[in-house]
Give the backbone structure.
Amino acid sequence: MPELPEVNTFQKYFDGTSLNQPIEAVEVYDDKIIRNVSGDEFIDRMTGRTFVGSYRRGKYLFAKLDNGEHLLLHFGMTGDLNYYAEPQERTKHERFVFHFNNGQHLGFDCPRKFARILYIEDLAVYLSDSQLGEDALVITKADFLERAKGKTATIKGFLLNQNQVAGVGNLYADEICYQTGIHPGARVNKLSIQQLSEIYQAMQRILEEAIKRSAYYKDYPENWFWEWRKEGEPGPKGKGIVQRTKIAGRTTYFIEGVQLLY
């Protein structure tokens, strides 16, 4: 599932292909993922517009239009972008497509239809109403520690809570806990300031490294994070045994005997 680094890769792809090109036409093949307007209204609102910029916050990509409004692209589990020239390059699960006046096309592919597309008239109001937390790469350590203060949730649950910190998902949360030697089921209020600071530093370091390596959830580079997540096998360097459980409602991997539960 696309998390912060993967959506950052989508943002670079979008910016490099689709900005400053008038949208000549729009086709909607399946409007299930377009959540707050009908397919016909989506076509009416987008036709003739131009994408002039983008803003990413956590897993959310906001495409700015020339009228000051925005299109939210939330990729869900299987969303993807496809910029192409020829009809045969269209993907199998394209749900809608923008036809630019330069003859190119930007399709939104989503096999499982869990993506969420919203037309947003006022971005500031949307961000306030949604209570989306600060981006995981923008939040300061002081703010991170303040948000964690007194929380009784598990550290994994806290990291996954997009209202607290935006951008970390299941896989990166497991990696953050692994790299800090903390069990993902540890309670936040049982962790020291030093341990929470290490969580914060690992979060930023891991996300920045994933961005540098152009994370793409369908084809990760070699020697990627979380290759250790293999239940029943020894952990890296032969230490501990990898276990699988459910924490915060999500399938979770940790290394027994290495990651400590507080």
User: Anything to note?
Assistant: The chain has a mean pLDDT of 97. The helical segments are 4-18, 39-46, 123-130, 141-148, 155-160, 170-180, 193-212. Residues 5 and 211 are 5 Å apart (CA to CA). The chain has seven helices and twelve strands.
